Amino acid sequence: MMSEETPAGTTDARPGAIDAVPVRHPGRWVAIAVIAVLVAMLVHLLLTNKAFDWKFVFQAMNQTPVISGFLKGTLLVTVLSMIVGVGGGVLLAVMRLSDNPILSGVSWAFTWFFRSIPRYLLLFTMGTLGVLFPSGVSLGIPFDWKIIEWLGMSGDWRFLTLDANQVFTGLVAGVIGLGLSEAAYMAEIARAGIMSVDKGQAEAAEALGMPKGKAMRRVVLPQAMRVIVPPTGNETIAMLKDTSLLLAVPVIGELFYQLQSIGSTYYKTFPIAVAATLYYLLATSVLMVGQYFLERHFGKGFGTTAPRAARPAGAGGA
């Protein structure tokens, strides 16, 4: 029977216990101390500096015109503009990727133009477009007056005429201007998302008898959403902040316009800026939470964390 003791003349191959010493990071503690001091200074400034005038800030935020401006001029315009922008952007992206050179060229020209124009200038121009249509914006058969003249008839073939001064002013002009500008950016985002999907996906769908349009809707776009959603969330947040540019149209039923009016009345400029900042911080925080859940939903199946290391054989507990 063999002895359980180590035979004479042999050494134990197992290493001894390692006395590991953690790596020191003095720079981290210095950075933490500096940050703590800066935070304390900021809190002291916010609580003690009378220029903030918190009572007036909250009073201004609770005014009915301000709340209405936040709901209509900020949130509603953001939602409607993003609907126009996302829908138009996807359409432009599909056109840009088309084999038809005319569709591809039109998409490129649209994207080039609206990406080149600053949004403030675009909204300002939108508010003055009524001068181009003194008799109104008509919907009907194009060049109907010429056709009627050639046929020796009278009248017109228009079924709806809108007052241009009403179409290109107010919230409608803001939504149109911001939506068209956003469509140009969303076109590039959607195009990048569509191109990220392997071509074999669309080819397989078409091999099963799916039309190209249906394959795009049912196969390609759902997979492209993983790439499209994060920048779209950023564009939505940027759109929310860009609603403050509606002053260029001008839109009086907007958050920043209403707060500026209150500040001008009471000669309180800085507290008004603080009130607007708090509103935008609140809204963007909610949007960031929604973006997080959307990214998690469309990112299913694409792990974002490193896989756990496999446990060695025999490492399980007793």
TrEMBL record:
The protein's name:
Amino acid ABC transporter permease
Provide the transmembrane region boundaries: 29-47, 67-94, 120-143, 167-187, 272-294
Question: Among its keywords, does the record have Transport?
Answer: yes
Organism of origin: Kribbella antibiotica
Highest taxon in the source lineage? Bacteria
Q: Name one GO cellular component term.
A: plasma membrane
Q: State the Gene Ontology BP annotations.
A: amino acid transport; transmembrane transport
Task: Report membrane topology.
Answer: Multi-pass membrane protein
Name all ABC transmembrane type-1 domain ranges. Answer: 71-291
Q: What PANTHER family does this protein's entry cite?
A: L-CYSTINE TRANSPORT SYSTEM PERMEASE PROTEIN TCYL, MEMBRANE COMPONENT OF AMINO ACID ABC TRANSPORTER
Tell me any Pfam family this protein matches. BPD_transp_1
Entry keyword set: Amino-acid transport, Membrane, Transmembrane, Transmembrane helix, Transport
As for subcellular location, the record says: Cell membrane; Membrane
So what family is this one in?
A: Belongs to the binding-protein-dependent transport system permease family.
